[in-house]
Each structure stands twice: as C-alpha cells, then as structure tokens.
Amino acid sequence: MSGITYDYMEKYLRGLIGDSKGMLKELEDFAEENAVPIVQKETARLIEFMINLKKPKKILELGTAIGYSSILMSLASENNVTITTIERDEKMVTIATENIKKAGLDEKISIIQGDCLEVLEGLDDEYDLIFMDAGKGHYSEFLPHCIRMLSKDGIIISDNVLFRGMVACKDLMIRRKITIVKRMKKYMETISKDENLLTTVIPMGDGIALTVRRNENENTGTISSSRELGEA
Ligand SMILES: C[S@@+](CC[C@H](N)C(=O)[O-])C[C@H]1O[C@@H](n2cnc3c(N)ncnc32)[C@H](O)[C@@H]1O
Questions:
Q1: 171 class by beta-carbon count within 10 Å (0-12 exposed, 13-18 middle, 19+ buried)
Q2: 3-state secondary structure of 195
Q3: Which residues does 231 contact at the CB level (< 8 Å), separation at least 6?
Q4: Where along the chain is Mg(2+) bound (predicted)?
Q5: Each residue of 185-212: pLDDT tens digit?
C-alpha cells in the first residue's frame, strides 16, 4: 500500500490512464530499471491537465532527474512554452541533457545545474507554473522564492507532500525520515494557512499540493453559511 490510497484504486486509475508511448515510455522503463524516482502516473496526468487548463508560457521545475517530467510538460504545452529546470546531480544533468536533445526539445527546455536554493536566489523571472519536485526537506526554503517569481495567475504544484502517508499518520512513520516529515508538515501548514495563498491537497500519487494566490478582496475566512450571511 502507498500509505495514501488503496492499491486497487491506484491500479484502477493507472489502468484508465493507460501506457505511455515513445520517448516517455522509454524514460519510464529507464527510471524503473535504474531506480530513478520520477513522477507517478497519476501525478503526470494531473500536471498535463493543469498545463491544459492554465496554459502556462513559462514553467520552472525544481528537480530534473532524467528529464522525464520536463519532457512530459513540454509535450503537453503549446509550442512557445519554455521550461527551466534545476538539478544538482551532475550525472542526472548529463542524462537529462541527452534525453531532452533526443526528444528535440533542447530549444524549449534549459537545465540549470546547481542546488535549488542557490539557483533560486539568483533567478528573477516570472513563471506561470512552478513544479516543486526536489529536496523534500527544503520546500519551505524554496517557497518564498517560488512565490516571488509566481505570475499573478500562476500555480505551484508540489509533489510528495504526503510522503508515503507519513505526513498525515505517525503510525506510518519510518524513523530515519522523521526530519523530512517534520519539515514537510511545516511546509503544509504554511501553504495551507498563509492568507495570501489558496492551497488544495490531492491525496494521490505521493500527495500533490496545488497552490495559487488568493484573489484580491477575497474573504479569507472559512466559507460562511447562508445564516451568517444573513440570508436565512
Ligand atoms: C524526484 S527527482 C525529480 C524527478 C523529475 N521531476 C521527474 O519526475 O522526472 C528529484 C531530483 O531532485 C534532485 N535534487 C534533490 N535535492 C536537490 C536540490 N536541493 N537542488 C537541486 N536538485 C536537487 C535529485 O538529484 C533528483 O534528481
């Protein structure tokens, strides 16, 4: 069990999505054979969905690995979309560069090699979609930079926010993961309680949080009942 959803549910939903084809399938096979963590199938589908919905022009990704999700996002996007993706592992950068070139997407996807926090500190662009998928224990440090660079109607998608269920249930806790889990809980509190942000968490894959800015003038309280609104 994933600690987040039931196996039968995961199997059923993955069956509906079906198998990937071409380069994405090759990368999925490579990732499995070489134990490289890439987005789960349902997460990949959600990202494609959000790209169709929001039509971002500029995307920022934290955590490239072999380039799977950046290629997926590029293929799901319109032609003029650019993606900047950050990865600190030199070996991954080499593999991702090759994969992106092979996919013919090297004009659209640029990899910045380095630690996310250091790279983010030096970036000053505006992004419509930010996909956070690196350094689970450091999301809280990445967040202020992501908010600073998020366009007005932009969205931050953070993966692994429930971390095999451990973030929500201490019975699932693995001792050596305590620090990551504590830090992820802090991140979840921040994105859920910040009055300027609106976050929803989807308990699928490894847990995905979707965060946008609240509309100006929006009532940030809990949804008022019709009685409170004086309509009873
Ligand atoms: C889960 S993988 C990314 C998977 C990728 N988004 C995909 O789905 O195809 C996370 C990657 O982030 C990298 N990483 C972890 N912490 C990092 C950090 N602080 N700065 C830059 N990269 C980091 C790891 O080396 C790893 O390749």
A1: exposed
A2: coil
A3: none
A4: 133, 159-160
A5: 999 999 999 999 999 999 999 999 999 9
Q: Is the CB of 65 under 6 A from ligand 1?
A: yes
Q: Residue ranges of the domains in the chain?
A: 7-213
* Residues 83 and 74: beta-carbon distance below 8 Å: yes
Q: What is the pLDDT of residues 102-158, one digit of tens each?
A: 999 999 999 999 999 999 999 999 999 999 999 999 999 999 999 999 999 999 999
Assign a CATH topology to domain 7-213.
Answer: Rossmann fold (3.40.50)
Atom of ligand 1 lying closest to residue 72 CA: 9
- Which two tokens mark 100? 């992106």
Contact 88/111 with Cβ under 8 angstroms? no
Say what the pLDDT of residue 217 is. 75
Both tokens of 217, joined, read 């003038």
Give the residue carrying structure tokens 């070139």. 101
How many C-beta atoms surround the C-beta of residue 70 within 10 A? 28
> What distance lies between CA 85 and its chain's CA centroid?
12
Expressed in angstroms and rounded, the spacing between residue 66 Cα and the centre of ligand 1 is 9
